Amino acid sequence: MFLRHDAGNAIWFTSSHFDDIRSYPQVGDNPVENHGTDRGKPLQKVRMVHGFSTKHGGISHLPYISDLNFGFSVGEDRATTMENYRCFARTLGIGDGHMLCANQTHTTRVLTVDETYRGMGLSVPYEARLDAALADGGFDGFVTASPDVALVVRVADCVPILFWDPEHGVIGACHAGWRGTVGGIAAKTVDAMCAIGAEKQHIRAAIGHAVGLCCYEVDDGFYETFLHSLGENVCNQIFRKPEEYEHSDKWHCDLRHCNRILLENAGLAPEHIDVSEHCTCCHHELFHSHRYAMKHTGGKRGLMAACISMETIE
């Protein structure tokens, strides 16, 4: 089973691929040189922690948000949203102020971060950590080899993906909407991890809950975009026109399966990739869903979060 549910906190976790305590050489100026082998640096014990949120377990009170939201532009006051981040961090066992996020703009841009980026997008403005050009463009992925740096991506139907190389102490996270998926952000996150010391054969990936094939109805132009970019073989595996659906003449797309295929093509072992079976739109009582909101609440909804961090153990 890909996900197990902590019913008390409404947080979902991946399988044993991600449950571990490891010791890595302490990161110096060059994390590529300091991970993978002990080069005389003192060892640092870390616990890999991570989770995928639902729409429950927080303090939000707007009716279309339920009680857990991580978006700052959905009509909720910032203080409430910030407390939700603190609740999430406490539940996962992440230190105060370790989380960071970015202005997600459906790009394929991946940012390499370290401890100096902690708090970015939350307690610290983007502009305080990024120059103007980077801050304006946004990022949809992060990688780090630094402990106590919690990478956060936010979703409401798009695909959240968390990564970990347990052998070299490198983690990553990305937000893959359809633009990010077709642009290859998952593979680019893997490449960015490898640039700071990870190796593809060791990387684990957890593809979280997102809108499913059942509910992700798209038009011919969408299909043609994927066909042009990814080819017929991939499209034959991720697109259907199922007769049992309401509009059987419309394409339906499976973005989660698409990202699995692209990660395998990028060099990850199939047995190192877990994929959630939960459709956010079908299970709108549990998850924030943009598709469901567009039909039923005038587009009003919150955002969920996925987070991963290597937290040090004293």
Structure notes:
With 314 residues, the protein is α+β, with helices and mostly antiparallel strands. 25% of the residues lie in helices and 24% in strands. It contains 9 helices and 16 strands. The chain has helices at 31-34, 78-92, 132-137, 178-183, 185-195, 220-230, 232-238, 255-265, 290-296; strands at 4-6, 11-13, 21-25, 43-53, 99-100, 110-112, 141-144, 150-155, 159-165, 170-176, 204-207, 217-218, 239-240, 251-253, 273-275, 304-312. Strands 1, 2, 3, 4, 5, 8 and 16 form a 7-stranded mixed beta sheet that branches. Helix 3 (132-137) links the parallel strand 6 and strand 7 (141-144). Helix 7 packs antiparallel against helix 8. The model is unreliable at 1-5 and 30-39 (pLDDT under 50).
Secondary structure layout plus pairing:
Layout: E1 4-6, E2 11-13, E3 21-25, H1 31-34, E4 43-53, H2 78-92, E5 99-100, E6 110-112, H3 132-137, E7 141-144, E8 150-155, E9 159-165, E10 170-176, H4 178-183, H5 185-195, E11 204-207, E12 217-218, H6 220-230, H7 232-238, E13 239-240, E14 251-253, H8 255-265, E15 273-275, H9 290-296, E16 304-312
Parallel strand pairs: 5-8, 6-7, 11-15
Antiparallel strand pairs: 1-2, 2-4, 3-4, 4-16, 7-10, 8-16, 9-10, 9-11, 12-14, 13-14
The number of E-state strands comes to 16
N- to C-terminal distance: 32 Å
Poorly predicted sequence stretches spanning 5 or more consecutive residues: 1-5, 30-39
Strand fraction: 15-25%
Secondary-structure element order, N to C: EEEHEHEEHEEEEHHEEHHEEHEHE
Structural class: alpha+beta
Helix content: 10-25%
Mean pLDDT: 88
Q: Give the overall shape.
A: globular
Helix count from the secondary structure assignment:
9
Radius of gyration: 19 Å
The main sheet comes to: 7 strands, mixed
